């Protein structure tokens, strides 16, 4: 599943759809949802990521990896969205992990302490492996 928003935010807050782009791709790695994000994440471009995060529980998946390796800008709205998604996943007995390698993204995660709340890894395989070691009430509840 792919969600895209194309455009650029002008100084007046209007969306110019010619210059700005964020793409979110959602896939599944067995029992883990993997959401790959490419582009710049700020207040005006969060909707595709929000939609992908909302799809995980509906699909019965309690573990989600958000791959931010192709994100070049990560604003406070993106941080807030990830914290909210982490809290929602925890309430459902699930977990979220992040993959990040870009300096700007790592800095945002580190300065705000988000990387101490949500596991942050340098590779997709490490993030998926870490989530698989995380117990999940949602998986056990769905077996009843």
Task: Describe the fold and architecture.
With 144 residues, the protein is an alpha/beta fold. The protein has one domain (2-142): Transcription Regulator spoIIAA (2-Layer Sandwich). It contains 6 helices and 6 strands. The chain has helices spanning 47-58, 76-91, 103-112, 114-117, 124-132, 137-142, and strands at 2-9, 15-29, 32-41, 63-74, 95-99, 119-121. A 6-stranded mixed β-sheet has the order 1-2-3-4-5-6, sandwiched between helices. The longest helix is centred in the middle third of the chain and has 16 residues, at 76-91. The two termini are 29 Å apart.
Short description:
The protein has 144 residues and is α/β, with parallel strands linked by helices.
CATH class: Alpha Beta
Count the beta strands. 6
Approximately how much beta-strand content do the residues carry? 35-45%
Number of helices: 6
Q: Spatial order of the strands in the main sheet?
A: 1-2-3-4-5-6
The CATH topology name reads: Transcription Regulator spoIIAA
Major beta-sheet overview:
6 strands, mixed
Features:
40% helix; globular; 144 residues; 6 strands; 6 helices; alpha/beta; Transcription Regulator spoIIAA
Topology, pairings included?
Layout lengths: L1 E8 L5 E15 L2 E10 L5 H12 L4 E12 L1 H16 L3 E5 L3 H10 L1 H4 L1 E3 L2 H9 L4 H6 L2
Parallel strand pairs: 3-4, 4-5, 5-6
Antiparallel strand pairs: 1-2, 2-3
